[in-house]
Amino acid sequence: MEQILRQFKPQQRNLIHILHQVQHKYGYIPAEAISRISDYLKISESEIFGVLTFYKAFTLEPRGQHLITVCLGTACHVRGGDKIADDFARKLNIKVGQTTPDRKFTLETVNCLGCCAIGPVVVVDGKYYSYTTLKKVDSILSEYK
After folding, report:
1. Is-cis flag, bond preceding 120, omega within 30?
2. Residue 107: pLDDT above 90?
3. Contact yes or no for 18/37 (Cβ under 8 A)
4. Residue 55 has pLDDT above 90, yes or no
5. Mean pLDDT, to the nearest integer, of 54-74?
6. Where are the domains positioned within the chain?
């Protein structure tokens, strides 16, 4: 934590940058980090929680080794995005927003990835899978098992 904090002046405007660094290092934002950031920036922990809960990019829970994101924007939804998300959840035996007990996979949905023409879209660890169908779910998962 100290290495991360030393990179930034103790100014509130650096909060999001610090949070990104912490999440990059730990995979999530641990409670101890929130307390330390609060002391360093001289802002309340509740202000930090406000930022953490506002931005979907941050998580307070450890994520899995692989992050699966299914787009549920209008174009992806009408092409079966919701069914694809449900199929991932069923095959991983978790709900959307959860991580598998072995911490191998985390499943999330987003409202739009901005690539409507190639939907439904699934992103795993930054790799985009276009025109995803229910038949492709198994092959996508097998790449990461």
Report:
1. yes
2. yes
3. yes
4. no
5. 92
6. 2-54, 66-142
Q: What is the mean pLDDT of residues 62-89?
A: 96
Tokens of 113: 């990835």
> With left for phi above 0 and alpha for psi between -120 and 50, is residue 55 left, alpha or beta?
beta
Q: Residue 68's closest CA among 24, 120, 8, 1?
A: 120
The pLDDT of residue 112 is: 92
Q: Amino acid letter at 13?
A: R
Place of tokens 């406000």: 50
For domain 66-142, the CATH superfamily is Glutaredoxin (3.40.30.10)
Asked if residues 98 and 63 have their Cβ atoms less than 8 Å apart, the reply is no
Q: Which of 120, 41, 111, 49 is nearest to 88 (CA)?
A: 120
